[in-house]
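[retry 2/3] FdhF/YdeP family oxidoreductase: previous attempt timed out, resubmitting with same input.
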Amino acid sequence: MTAKALVDDITEDATAMEVSEPRHWAAGLPGITHAMGPAMADMGVGRALTLLTDMNQKDGFDCMSCAWADPEERKTFEFCENGAKAVTWEATPVTIPTSFWAENSISSLLDKSEYWLGMQGRLVEPLYKPKGKDNYEPISWDDAFTLIADRLKAMDSPNEATFYTSGRTANETAFAYQLLARAFGTNNLPDCSNMCHESTGLAMGQTIGIGKNTIAYKDFAKADLIIIMGQNPGTNHPRMLTALEEAKEAGAEIVAVNPLLEAGLVRYKNPQKVKGIIGHGTGIADQYLQIRAGGDGWLMKAISQRVFQAEDANPGTVLDHAFLDEHCSGLEEFREHVKDLDAEMVLRATGLTTAEIDELAERYLRADKVVITWAMGLTQHKDAVNIIKEVINLLLLRGNMGKPGAGASPIRGHSNVQGDRTMGIWEKMPPKFLDALQREFGFDPPREDGYDVVKAVEAMQTGKTKVWISMGGNLVSAVSDTHAAEKGFSTVGLNVQISTKLNRNHLTVGDEAIILPVLGRTEVDMQEAGEQMLSVEDSVCAIHATRGKVKPISDQLRSEMSVVVGIARALFGDSGPIDWAAFEKDYDVIRDHIEHVVPGFDDFNKRLHEDNGFILPHGPRDSRTFPTATGKAMITVNDLEYIECPPGRLLLQSMRAHDQFNTTIYSLNDRYRGIKKSRRVIFVHPDDVKELGIADGSLVDVHSEFSDGVDRSVHAFKVVAFPTSRGCAATYFPEGNPLVPLGFTAMGSNTPASKSVVVRLEPLPAAGDSDATNASGSLATAEH
Ligand SMILES: Nc1nc2c(c(=O)[nH]1)N[C@H]1C(S)=C(S)[C@@H](COP(=O)(O)OP(=O)(O)OC[C@H]3O[C@@H](n4cnc5c(=O)[nH]c(N)nc54)[C@H](O)[C@@H]3O)O[C@H]1N2
Ligand SMILES: Nc1nc2c(c(=O)[nH]1)N[C@H]1C(S)=C(S)[C@@H](COP(=O)(O)OP(=O)(O)OC[C@H]3O[C@@H](n4cnc5c(=O)[nH]c(N)nc54)[C@H](O)[C@@H]3O)O[C@H]1N2
Ligand SMILES: [Mo]
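[retry 2/3] FdhF/YdeP family oxidoreductase: success.
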């Protein structure tokens, strides 16, 4: 089957946008019918039902749409609308025919949008772009592997190669892939996590000794209070709404902290319940704090200050003294520090009222067991690491860690981004891990840190990268400063993309490029020893099996493991210390190696085959042991930043629409926010729209303002008055990425700070004026 002609008409024109009232509830019946509709239409009822009923089941495959945890008791349909979209997008019967590559030059495809590219269907044959040519052409698997190995061997240093990973890769493949990079001699292993929860990993690593969730799934239902910060679960982790509904039914209070009023945080209509289908559903947030972007650290500190004040009023009854004495350091310094907290600054930085902050403090003090969850609304700020440390401080004061119903809960994004890290996908894995690799495989791994995402793009820009290999993902669109990234990729000698679907990173290439098409998570993976399964780790450290269920869309596809092994054998031959060929035949072999290298994986094969998985050990969660420098949980003193926004400017964040998965666009609509037919939107508070003298619905160019003197802008976005906090604005990613300089990153974690961007809006001439016709164009063309 080939792509429908329909997508040829898509111009992504802001003037085509239809705007209606945003929703005040999420999911429910429309969610399910929206979900089932496209799946059924595209792939037929049989295939669709097999996929949807096997999704997230114990003997099925793990949904690739997010890293949300699975409940112990699975329902018949354990999926959400957006999971169904992800599956449909991957398991589509539409494939890209060989003729497509002769008919479409690379430069002509660059004019198409990500949406259009993704809609062309699955990649089904290895492709090669030779030097001096503007088209991909078919190449055999063996020739592709030989060519990659030749280019790697021809380099002056292994550090001229970079091995990127997106977070869908399963544990076994990720382990083999990092082994390939390190056996070759480099730690250049950037990954999507560098743009995602890196700030979390750093802040939690430094304070409690581990960068992962301190709660288990069942803790949600045991909590008295759940604070959801900087996260939009209605769109990005929809199954979390079921856990929140259960928590509410068990008596928990829920507080949402978010500049935008997000439908899923207001009300949830559970499609699996009668009251969700015909009733009003469940109200989610008991208190909704529309905070100024970047202000969360100030809010946390202000609550901590009120905790100390309550303790002073009733000594010995508010702080958890037993926990603090035994397990924490830094209490007195912190107590002194927050005494002087500037109340005016708190109000300015949070945009909240004293009454709102007092109310949250009262809720916090009333609750014995508190969970705080967060995602990109905290991690992608200039001051993200400090902000997250303030979350940890607040939790520690009342012992909200390592007990049932309480803890710090960063919710991961990509479905195996957490597992990839556990497996060694990181540019700076600790010496302990490298020593274990050395013992297990008998080679000396490189010890100097490699590039993270930002450093990798900087290295490309200075011509330091000869070979780039991507295990999934679409870095050129995902990273900040789109045009700088495009320039970087154009200097790379050989760009190898291991992918399921066509995206812009296949088109931003230098001399040579190779596309290697792989099996997706839904497809059966058959190797010499029989049908293979893989494993993933979710947000709450649960390792479980994932098995493809449907026949691969083409018999030319290889598994990601086969591709890693293919490159490794072409590069190292079959006589070295590592038996690569064995990895491919039977994935149990690599699981045995993982067991020897990575702590917590004892009896890996047995526990995966027999029990379908297990929970990784976690000191703070299991026994209140904190593997930090001091052996204690560290309460920290952090000098918080305040992002100044000069008059006439707005503080811009970029986030996901309901019909997208990162750079993959399923449709141009964002149902909950009332947007249809175009993504070129900027949401602004109605009073700011007025104050700026711009008409609601008019078109503007958005310019960011940084001291490097470069004018970065995106063209022709529609202004939509929307319930966001004053002085803040929001647009979608990746459309907003050209506005963020590459070097504008979170302090410490180097994560692009794409949610703290100061912008100004420049109105375009009104419709009817000759210039306004310029307002159409895809991401590909409009910003050049
Ligand atoms: N359907 C779908 N699911 C996904 C993804 C997807 O693209 N589509 N992506 C996956 C990935 S990789 C990730 S990382 C997760 C992302 O999941 P989220 O973190 O929910 O993703 P964003 O859309 O970036 O939403 C960020 C939220 O933070 C809020 N926010 C922005 N700035 C601030 C701030 O300063 N303070 C506070 N308190 N809030 C703020 C925004 O208004 C928004 O509601 O989702 C995963 N799941
Ligand atoms: N401005 C702004 N920028 C952001 C963000 C933001 O909120 N705002 N969010 C950041 C975050 S949190 C993240 S995680 C990154 C995401 O960055 P990436 O992970 O690099 O990007 P994705 O869009 O998830 O990658 C999609 C591509 O992966 C490939 N793919 C899909 N499934 C598979 C598979 O099973 N195997 C293989 N080999 N390939 C597959 C397909 O070809 C698809 O086109 O973006 C970051 N960029
Ligand atoms: Mo992410």
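[retry 2/3] FdhF/YdeP family oxidoreductase: The radius of gyration is 25 Å.
[retry 2/3] clearing retry counter.
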